[in-house]
Structure formats: structure tokens, C-alpha cells
Design brief:
- The complex is a heterodimer.
- Chain A is mostly helical.
- Chain A folds into 2 domains: 157 residues, no CATH class; 132 residues, no CATH class.
- Helices cover 70% and strands 0% of the residues of chain A.
- Chain A is built from 10 helices and no strands.
- In chain A, helix 8 runs antiparallel to helix 9.
- The longest helix of chain A has 34 residues.
- Chain A is rod-shaped and about 95 Å long.
- The two termini of chain A are 41 Å apart.
- Chain B is an alpha+beta fold.
- Among the domains of chain B are: 81 residues, Ubiquitin-like (UB roll), CATH 3.10.20.740; 103 residues, 2-Layer Sandwich (Alpha-Beta Plaits), CATH 3.30.70; 133 residues, Jelly Rolls; 163 residues, no CATH class.
- Chain B is 26% helix and 25% strand.
- Chain B is built from 21 helices and 39 strands.
- Chain B has a 5-stranded antiparallel beta sheet with strand order 11-12-23-14-21. Chain B has a 4-stranded antiparallel beta sheet with strand order 13-22-15-20, with no helix packed on it.
- In chain B, strand 37 and strand 38 form a beta hairpin.
- The radius of gyration of chain B is 32 Å and the shape is elongated.
- The N terminus and C terminus of chain B are likely disordered.
- The chains are: A mainly alpha, B alpha+beta.
- At the A-B interface, helix 3, helix 4 and helix 9 of A face helix 18 and strand 33 of B.
Amino acid sequence: MRIDRTQRGWAIASLIMIAVFTAVYVAYAARAPQGPRGGSAFGLTFGVIGFGFMIVAALLGARKRVPTWRIGRAQAWMRGHLWLGLLSLPVILFHGGFHFGGTLTSVLMWLLIITVVSGLFGAELQHYVPRVMTSDVKLETIYDEIGNVRKLLREEADRAVETVCGPIGVGKSASEEVLRAGGLSAARPMSLTGSLGAVAAAAETAVLTEEECAPLRQFYLSEMRPFLEQPRVRGSRLGDADKAHGAFSGLRTLLPPPAQATVEDLEDICDEARQLVRQERLHHLLHGWLLVHIPLSLALIILGAVHAVMALRYS
Amino acid sequence: MSTISRLPELVEITIDGRPVRVAAGTSVFDAARMNGTAIPTLCHLQNETPVGVCRLCVVDTGARVLAASCVRPVEPGMKVVTNSEKVLSARKTLLELLMADHPSPCARQEKSGDCELETLAQAAGVTQPRFLKRTVSRGIDDSSLAIAVDHDACILCDRCIRGCNEIKNNFVLGRMGKGYSAGIAFDLNAAMGDSTCISCGECMVSCPTGALTNKTVVGTSIAAGSDAEGFEAEELLQLPVFKGVSGTFLELNRGAIVKRRFRPGEIICREGEFGSTAFYILEGKARVSLSAPIAHVKTQGGAKGLFKKLTSTLAARDADVRSEETRDRTIPIDASVDLAYGNPVAELGSGDLFGEMTCMNFYPRSATVIAETDVVAFEMLRNVLDIMMKNKSFRAQIDQNYRKRALENHLRGVPMFADLSPDFIEHLKGSVELQRFAPGQIIARQGDAAGSFYLVRIGFVKISETYPGGELVLAYLSRGDYFGEIGLLGGGVRTATCTALDHVELVRISGGDFRDMVERFPSVRQGLEAVAAERATQNQQRMQTVRSVPIDQFLSQGLMEAQSLLILDLNSCTRCDACVNACADAHDGVTRLVREGLRFEQYLVATSCRQCRDPLCMVGCPVGSIRRRNSLEVIIEDWCIGCGLCARNCPYGNINLHPFDVMVDDLERPGRKKAVVKQKATSCDLCTHLKEPSCVYACPHDAAHRVDPRTFFSEMLGGGSSK
């Protein structure tokens, strides 16, 4: 979620609340004979408010599980999550009088701090990373489809090279075989016998001699195809845009004019493969922090409830 | 004068030193042939007039130049040498020249090894011609279903032209162009499939090379099951419906038509299945029906109960009235009958043809056909059906069946024609004309004089208007739709161009009959005028939209035609897929949204139905159940059979298939029912059952928005007016 002017209402409300809570706390702390304590009336009030904020913030996860329920727009829930979650930290600090207390309360305080900080970090990431992804990954695809798109890129590159060099000895997928049969598939049978097809098969004519295409074949099989198969492995110069451009420029000088268009296609394919790597990394960055934030939030709520019961029952 | 005096005079000549006597007027070629000397030729055939264009039959007659023996008559005392060094050298040069202009091996040589040119060239030792090969292709013509035309392989011998004109008297083939662009042409240089060619096969039989080849060589045959009976061409020609069909064609396409016998209760074809054949019933009766539930997908639950789970159910139009839902009483299918909405069952009998659209256009089967009695039927492939439909006797029978059985239903299926009197329908039965159009053929052009009114019987017609800089598709019309009324009721000028998208058959009502109809039946006139006015207004509004925002990119993507787009602001979107999950939740687990699509700056136009300018989804629906509302939104009518063609046709993946468990009649055990999964096509319904689209409501990052594209993009592009 972007932190922009649309958040102004929540920001002002939060500032007012924190100002009020601070004023109350200062007044209460100044008058408390033994200093501020969690068990006092003010302390308990802060505790209830802070825990309430935490619960409301945590309910966002539950809200997302029922997206069609008309219980307020998810956007409002997200804003509430962000600002109330943030407010819960000072309120809980007021609740404990800035003391971490015993073991359970110390654990709770640290959990709260880490959860809020991870949430702030996540909010920051969600503010910036989408923009970076939009500008850097022009050919973005659905994250779960990246594997498939990579496979298609590999097949496309194989075809491009085979068009000028002839067979390069790599296996073909079933979908490629269909394509080579002139696009004839079960969906559009020409006859019930599975006709040989009125559509000509895709050309496999080599336009270069073996000697002419040797540099291209060598480059493709030894460098580019391994890169397309495992683009995340570091070390390949094709993983770096500048180095890849240099590599392709060098290759162009070794090849005759009929192969230049193919080299251009291959360079585009590498570029797309690089973009997919970038998308994956950004996606992990964008969602990876949740691996910390969500379990800690859950633990916080459970332990917070335990603390509340124990404090009220045994105090 | 005695008979003997009228006999031709005999002439004595010498061929390769051997004296021979032949009748005066005999060609040197025939004189040599009759006396056992074979002279090679390409352009000459015994049963065709010699023209001497290939010059390969040159012989030395002692004159200054070599003579083409096929056109040179014998003269008394002529000394003919057919195999001197000079003659052989000339022939070899000619073969080299011809081979330089001929792809080697050509289709015929490749398939059967009997290209006459290549055989002669090999015999003469011509391997690599000394002359440069042709660099500019003259092209191929694959439009005919029976014959493949490779203009590059044509050596301009004219044998096909003479076969077509002299032997068959069809006068379809001729020569066109000069020099390098010279070639054979069908009619006025039309594509063979679009010409008046009846595919008799004479040209193909005459052709010495692979320029005209039978498509059988690429495997046109029906899978012959145990119940299939093959034919000899003579046997078929005995049947009245095959009267006039070329025996050559049937001989060459043996296997592309079989006779099948079906026992009572046996399924002939099933709705939704893809196929490539049509059936013609010779004997017996068959029942044609739809097993898909006649209902549409309705999502319920959200509006009333806060915590109620949304469910999708099937609802008939009486149970759930949708805006602008058609009230058609009949369902168009790929046969000579329509089915009733409430009881989609009809009977087919002897002389009925069904599966024509499947066969000609490869659309899915529109209905299930089951034999009621013992049924004998011809099953035929596209090339045979095409020829049959060009055959007068077959056409006459199909037309008669249509006029007798379906025309009235067809007319009455159009609500405004429901008031036509029986006598006028009878009159129309005799006066309407059935017209066929090939894919891409223009039926009526914008600006032309309007002379007829048309009902679509088979296929799809594209209605489009041209405007400066482009074309706007107004509608795709399918079986049961009509057009031409605006021009006839208005200024007498066509306001749009109507083009056949596939193999189209139209019922043409002449301008005179149309005028009679609107004069005699005021309700028809009022109805037509109302529809014409409505269409004209809509078209004007669309044109206004197009003109007001002349942004080519948006136009080409169809975005400005959309009324509501789902836009994702990628700078805010965290790719959490909450929108997709919400859509799936709102539609019983079947999402109607994919978070992928076109990008404009930081905005992603997600794949959710956007009511395209050119709604390709509507093309091919075998039962015509997908159409636009007047508001342009897509509506899927109750009789969708769930074949999925619209989903495959949608270039943006915006149509999905929603499975339902339903009880249907068990076709294998009559009288019993069984549970099966049936599918219904669905597209984004903007969550009309809820107050706000679920995708937008569920986005936690304020990234998903439903927008009016005109306003949105106008503002995005710098505050341009969206008026």
C-alpha cells in the first residue's frame, strides 16, 4: 500500500490519538505514587486499548479470507491494520510504563517491537517495490507462471536457432511437436483419422552452412541455453544486461547478415529471462517479510491473550 | 459427289528417314505417333485443341526454323527429323528454361513422382538449369477445398484452360497478365474457392505438373469404422442427389464420403464435440435435441446475508429475468430445423442435411442427433459437401427442405415477424432466394444502393462501418439474425459493410417483397423501424466515441470501446492476488479475472471482459447463444451448450467455463437419467448481484478500480476531453 496523501485522515486521527494518550500518560505517570504500572486502572486501560488495536490489526488476515463479505472495504481494513498496529506499540509501552516486566511480558514486548518494526519495513517495501517492479520488469507475468514462461522462452530460442542452424539436438516438448505439425491439434481435427494435415509443417530449413553457424551454435549451446535453463545461477555474463549486450555484439560480428535477426531475437529472449529473474527477486522481497510478520503477530496475539488472562486472574 | 471423293487425300512424308502415309491435315505430331514415333510434349493432349505453346515437340522439317509438330500439318514430301542433334539440343534448352521457372520437385513429383516436366527433364539429363531461377513467387491458392493451386509450378501450357472450356464447357479458367506475371486465372482472377469453379477436376487431370493437384494426396478421408461403407463413383452417381456431380471428383475423393447405418437409439453425433463432417440422411428418422440445461449461471447469496456463502446456480429465464435477455422462442442449430426453447427436440428425416457448419467451418456440433428408426446416412468431409452444395440437384433438395420445414420457423423466430399471415409466408417460401458466400466475401458494401433484406441461415456475418483511419465492427450476426432493413427503410443506401466471416448462407428477401411485407403488416413495419432507429442511434454513438478519442493504440486494443475496465495501478499493487481470490469466491470458485493483460504506463488492464470493439468470442457459437446486449455487454443465453469455443476465441482469456452437476436423459438407456457435469460459459458480470465488484472491494491496496475508459484515459493522457 502506498503511503501517500490518501492516508492523511488516518495519519491525523492517529496523531490525535497518540497526543491524547501521551497527555493522559504523562499526567497519570506524574501523579502515580509508585510510577506507572500495568495493573493500575490507567495501565489496564492502556493495555485493553493496545490489545484491542492489535486484535483489530490482526483481523485483517481473517478479513482477507472472506473477500466477498460486505464488512467494509479491504482497503479500509488495511489502513486500520497499518495505523492501529503502529499505535499499539506506544499504547502498550504506556501500559507497562516503559518497563518490560517479567519473562512473559518481556517476550511480549519484544514480539510487539519486532512485529511493528517488521510491519513498518513491509509497508515501506510495499510502498517502493511495486514501483520498482513496474519500471524494471516490463514483461512481468503472473508469479506462478514464471516457470512456464521460462520454458516457452527456451523453446522459442531453440526454434530461432534451429531456423538458421538446423537441428541442434535438444529435446522438444509435446506443445512444440504440435506446432511443428502445423498447429494441428486435437482441438481442430481435419478428419477423424487424424489427417496428415492440410497445413504445412513449420519450416526446419537451415539458412546457414555448418561452418557459418558454428559460432552461433557454440554460443547458444554452451552459454545461452544453460542460462535459460537456470537463469538464477550466478556467474553467467548473460545475467548482466551490459555484459550480455557485449556478448551479443561480439556474436553479431561473427555471423553473416541472415543470422542477425535471429541474434536480435535471442538477445530479446535473454532480456526477458533476466526480467523474470528480477521479478522473482522483487516478489520475494515484496512478500518475504510476511514470513516474519505473520507468525510473530499470531504469537503476539496468543501470548497477549495468555498474559491478559493471567494478569487479570492472578493479580 | 461420291463418299470416296470426300475422304481426305493421303499425303506421303518421311519421318526419321521412314516413309509414312497419313491423311492430309494431320499434324506432324499425330503422324509420328500413329507410326510409332513418340515426340515429347507438355502442352498437347489428344483430346484438346493443339496450341503449340510449350514448343517441346519441335521437329526439323528442313525449314529455316524448327517447327512445333503439334500444330504443323503434314505436307506432301515433307522430311521430318525428330531426334537430330539440333532438335535434341533445342528441346534440352527448352526444358532448362522451363525447369528454371519450376519448383523442383513440385507437389506432384513429390507425392507421386509423375510430373511430366520433371520426368522429361530427367530423361534429357537436365539437372541444374543454366538459367537463373525465378525470384518472385506467383503464389499459391489454397482456397478450393478440392484442388490445390501452385502458380509457381504452372508452365502456362494451357491444358487446364482447354480442359475447362473445351471439354467441360465450364468457362471458368483463362489466362491473365503478361510476361513474368502471366498465369492462369479463375473467373476474373478470383481465388479458386471463391470462383464459379465446380471442382469437376478436369483441370487437375489435364495439368502436366504440380500446379493443380488433388487435395486427396494430403489425406482427405473419413475414419472408416465397421459400420462405414465405401463407394465406387459409379454407384454414387446413380443416386438422384449426386446427379451432375463430377465422376472424376468422386473417384479422386473416394474415402471422403461414406455411407453409415445407425440402429434405433444409436448416437450419430453429440453436442459440443468437435467434428469435420456433415450428415445427409438417406433413409430413416433421427431425433435432434439439446441435453445441456436451458439456463444461465446465476450467482446468489451476497446481497441478503452478510455471512452467507455465494453460490452459483443455473436459472432459466423465467426464474431469473435479466435485462435485455432475448425472448426468442427457438434455438438455432446446425440443421434444417430450429429447436423450441421450452422443449428443444425436433425430428430429422430423409433428405435432411445436418452438421453443415461443423463441416464447413469446424465449429462444434450444435446438438445431439440420435437415430429413432434405422437410419442410413452419408457422412461427408468438407470437400465433398462443398461440391455437393454447388450441385444443382442437391442444392434444390436442400433448398426445398429448408423452404418447406424451416423458413417459417426461421421467420417467426424473429419476434417482429410473428404477425406475418400464413399466406404471406407461403408467398415468401416461393420467392426468397438462398445465397451462399465464401469467407471474406462482401455481401453488401457501405454506400451501395440497398436492394434486399437478409436473414442469416448459416454462418456469421460481420457488420462494420468504416471511418477515417479504421473500421468499427458493429456486430456479428449469426443464424436467426437479420440485416438490411436500415437501408431499405431509410435512404436506400447501405449504412454498413456486411462481410461473410465464414461459409455463410443467407435467405434473401427482395426489396419488392420487403416493401410488400411492411405495407401489408404495419406491426412488422413498426417493429423494423424501431429496431432500425435503435441500431442507427447505437451506431452513431459508437462512431462518436471513436471519433472523440482518436488514440490509435487504444483503438487497436479495443479499450475505448469498453464501458468498464478493471484497471490495476501497478505502483500500488503488491501482486497479492486478493482481487483474483475475491472473484473466485464471488463465483463459486471459478474466477472470471486473471491478473495479466495490457499495460499502459503503470496501469494494467486486467483480463476481465471488456466488451471488445471486435467481439471475436461471438464468432462460431454453434447455437448463437452469446451476443451483445444493447449496452454492449456480453450476455450468454440460456441455451449455451458449454462447448467452450467462445472461451477459446476470446483473445484475452476473459471467458471461462463453469461446471455444474446436472441430471440428464441417459441416451444409452432411454427413460433413465444420469448425473453428468455440464459446463456453461461465463464472463465478468461486474458482480451485479453485489453492490460493488468483488475484485475492487477486496483490494487492500487501493490498486484495483473499475473505470470508464474514456474518462480515465482522457485524464491520464493529459486532461483531454472525453466528450
